[in-house]
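Hey, I was hoping to borrow your eyes for a little while. A protein chain has come my way and I'm curious about its shape. Take your time with it, there's no hurry, and the full record follows here:
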Amino acid sequence: MTRHMTRHIYLIGFMGTGKSTIAQRLKTILRAGEIDMDAAIVKEAGMSIRRIFEKYGEDYFRDLETKMLKTISGYRPSVISCGGGTVMRPQNVELMKKSGIIVLLTAEPETVYERVKNSKNRPILNGHMQVDYIAQLMEKRRSAYEAACDVRIPTDNRTPDEIAQEVMTAALPF
């Protein structure tokens, strides 16, 4: 049975929970469009996220996210991996809810650390690449993630294919 997307699937969650990886899997399985919001912002801004943060600050970057969401929401149904802080703005959540289903991918702080510890492109960690700091930041965002999501899927100790299948079961058809 072929499943067709009628609305966007927004993947949200903390960095390192698998949003980009799962979006790529779903793109292939569903033969759908796929948008990595951070990559799209980098392309449009002509500079890395780290550079955007350094030059203009986090608020400016969050403005770019909102602008990107407004554009994306008008596209044909796609799988969209959102930046980790996208849901911190209520207007972003409202845009996502109007045009799709919001799937929260979760992972334990230790799992996130293992997945991102060698990355140089995590400006929000600001030189604090440690489990305790990650746990604190995750806790600050937890209520916003939980309030925004329609579906919650843990990613610890699971393969991308297992997670993608669960996303499809939860999100299609909708």
In short: Helices lie at 19-30, 37-45, 49-56, 58-72, 90-99, 109-116, 131-148, 160-171. DSSP finds eight helices and five strands in the chain. The longest strand covers residues 100-106. The longest helix spans residues 131-148.
